[in-house]
């Protein structure tokens, strides 16, 4: 079995992380090392093969124990580019939920103050290599993506606003309710097989279940 990171890569991950994240990153590294988090093919592989989704398709992969560490690295990289700008970053979406199958793209919620100058953040994220795509049909959100194929999405919203609360509530509910997570994962697999070339149909088909989880998550919070 190959290790989830080489020794040099492990040093880079820890150097990029806030010290409070070190135990979490180490736990997931050991989880992968023990073999519990292996993805298909029986090998943990390299950092670079953990992410990447081709345009125009719906493709799910099983949970990869490297994702939390990759989030920590990207979180610090974005902070470095944003400098003094007030910013909160959270790992959201399928890759943030241990055990959940997901599209191999890291989603980050970027929370900014209500009175923030959007252009300052757009410029910073573009310096970090992100492409600004505007609201993309979600009022109150600025959407960014990076990589070819895509590896990272940033959803910039008002910190503490309704979108921010939904992102976090959805993630936290599925993290703490294993059966609900299994049911949602099964639905995702079924829909991905059915709509592998139609992302919009895939999103629409799972929307009702997503709204149900949001109601449960927000009521629990």
Account of the 3D structure:
The chain is globular and about 45 Å long. Helices cover 47% and strands 13% of the residues. It starts with 6 loop residues before the first helix and ends with a helix. Strands 1-2-5-4-3 form a five-stranded mixed sheet, with helices on both faces. The chain has 221 residues and is an alpha+beta fold. The model is unreliable at 30-45 (pLDDT under 50). The protein contains seven helices and five strands, in the order αααββαβββααα. Helix 5 (162-176) packs across helix 7 (199-220). The relative contact order is 0.12. It has a domain at 7-160: Beta Polymerase, domain 2 (2-Layer Sandwich).
Defining traits:
5 strands, 221 residues, alpha+beta, 5-stranded mixed beta sheet, 7 helices
Radius of gyration: 17 Å
Strand order of the largest sheet: 1-2-5-4-3
Instruction: List the helices and strands in order.
Output: HHHEEHEEEHHH
What kind of sheet is the major sheet? 5 strands, mixed
Work out the helicity level. Answer: 40-55%
CATH class of the domain at 7-160: Alpha Beta
User: Mean pLDDT, rounded to whole units?
Assistant: 86
Q: How large is the share of residues in beta strands?
A: 5-15%
CATH topology of the domain at 7-160: Beta Polymerase, domain 2
Shape: globular
Cα distance, first to last residue?
41 Å
What is the CATH superfamily of the domain at 7-160?
Answer: Beta Polymerase, domain 2
Tally of extended strands?
5
Class by helix and strand content? alpha+beta
SS element count, helices: 7
CATH architecture of the domain at 7-160: 2-Layer Sandwich
Low-confidence stretches: 30-45
